[in-house]
Amino acid sequence: MRLEKNLSVLVTVYTETVSVVETVERLRSSDPGFINEIILLVSPKASDETLQICRGLADRFESVKVHVQATGPGVGRALREGMLAAGEEYVAIMSGDLETEPEAVVRMYRKMQESGADVVIGSRWAKGGGFQNYNRVKWVCNWVFQKMFQVVYGTRLNDLTYGFKLFRSSVVQSIDWESTHHTIYIETTLKPLLRGYQMEQVPTVWIGRREGESVNTFFRNFEYLKMALALRFDAFRNSSAKLELDS
Ligand SMILES: Nc1nc2c(ncn2[C@@H]2O[C@H](COP(=O)(O)OP(=O)(O)O)[C@@H](O)[C@H]2O)c(=O)[nH]1
Ligand SMILES: [Mg+2]
Predict the structure, then answer these.
(1) What pLDDT shows up at residue 88?
(2) Residue 111 in contact with residue 202, Cβ under 8 Å?
(3) Longest dimension (CA), the chain
(4) Average pLDDT, the chain
């Protein structure tokens, strides 16, 4: 396999301190040499402590950069700014709260090289993946959602809502992203899927954060549902319109 330094990793950071340090250290120690840059996308509302820790990581490691998001709040805006700032052929997105397993980035990269895929998603529902310290009710709701939308989208991908994945940069650049907040996680899987890009998945275990709290709310689940239905409906309408034009 080619060993090229052509991977940008985008890590979103809001309230994390020790978790972001461990994320960077584990990314670096598991990397055989693919990662060229790790961009810490820091919320403008992050504490001085969080920002100092991120700047400290950038001083310590040449590959680490800090980008304080400038277009407004929300993890969607942070990732969209990061996608514009990323300079490499491949881009990974993940969280700085250690709920996204740093070692899985290299597994995604290898999967992409082996399969020629355009996008590789992390899957908590694939064999070998899983959840630790996840709320039981959320776990059941998540399972039902995944099963339903696997049918609606006709896909074997079985974790459509997880915000942990790897893209070819050309895919990221070819799509108009619209989410400002957490729906970016479902949008970044469903839009490439609808465009017909080759998608693969690797198993990974989600482990509940040990530090701070999620800023995601229960209400946002309805936004996921709304986006999943709207994107499917739009794609259906566009393909019907195209059929009419062609006939
Ligand atoms: N830069 C940035 N990061 C954010 C923002 N909101 C959340 N994050 C980070 O994005 C990651 C995922 O957010 P989290 O609240 O844990 O959501 P959940 O994992 O979906 O429950 C965490 O590392 C957060 O610190 C934001 O507005 N800006
Ligand atoms: Mg989280």
Answers:
(1) 94
(2) yes
(3) 62
(4) 96
Instruction: Output the CA 12–ligand 1 centroid distance in Å.
Output: 6
Compute the C-alpha angle 209/215/218, nearest 5°.
Answer: 100
Q: Which two structure tokens, joined as six digits, stand for 4?
A: 């090229």
Burial 75-112 (b: 16+ CB within 10 A, else e): bbbbbbbbbeebebebbbbbbbbbbbbbebbbbbbebb
Residue 35, φ and ψ in degrees, nearest 5: -80, 120
**C-alpha 217: how far from chain center:** 18
Radius of gyration, CA atoms only, the chain: 18
Closest ligand 1 atom to 99 CA: 19
Q: Does position 21 have pLDDT exceeding 60, yes or no?
A: yes
What DSSP character marks residue 71? S
Q: Which residues pair with 206 in a beta bridge?
A: 131
40 DSSP β-pair partners: 11, 66
The residue-averaged pLDDT of 115-119 equals 98
Q: Residues lining ligand 2 (ion), CB within 5 A?
A: 97, 99, 214
Q: What is the C-alpha to C-alpha distance for residues 101 and 190, in angstroms, rounded to an integer?
A: 22
Q: Are 117 and 165 in contact (CB under 8 A)?
A: no
Are 213 and 15 in contact by the 8 Å Cβ rule? The answer is yes
The Cα–Cα gap between 113 and 45 comes to: 37
Q: CATH class for domain 7-246?
A: alpha beta
The Å distance, Cα 216 to ligand 1 centre, comes to 7
Note the pLDDT tens digit of each residue in 42-92: 999 999 999 999 999 999 999 999 999 999 999 999 999 999 999 999 999
Q: For 118-130, how does the pLDDT look when each residue is reduced to its tens digit (9 = 90+)?
A: 999 999 999 999 9
What does the domain layout of the chain look like in residue ranges? 7-246
